[in-house]
TrEMBL record:
This is Uncharacterized protein. The chain crosses the membrane at residues 80-98, 118-139. Keywords: Membrane, Transmembrane, Transmembrane helix.
Amino acid sequence: MTTPTPIVDERAWQLQEQALRAAHVRRDEPDAAALADRRLLRALREPPLSPLPADFAAGVARLAAPAAATRTVDTRLERLLGAVLGIALGAAALAQGLEQGAEWLRILAEQASPLPPGTLRLGVALAACVGCSWLIGLLPRRQARRSLRH
């Protein structure tokens, strides 16, 4: 059994904990990592110097829009490769079915058991429920189309 590797670097964690304790005690440490951790801790505790403007997100979107508009992605190659892959998979499935289809059907026929009594009635009832639900779902769409026409 393998032991999971720790996600956190233990040494870095200890340095951060020391910086946290040192910030409370207010003693200076010559270690550069501890000083960096203390600066980070102080920056996270204090609020930002100036709040972002109200239209900051809109400004960023305005700056990003021209770059996104000039960049067009040509997906013809991906569509072609997808079609080729689909045709290849279909041909492989057809070849496999032709080669071993009779064997599969024989195995399925051996494994199939006769349906218990009443199964046909339950299947018809299920199909009727699904069909009624589908038809009822069509009614609001038809009424919406009629209201748009008039």
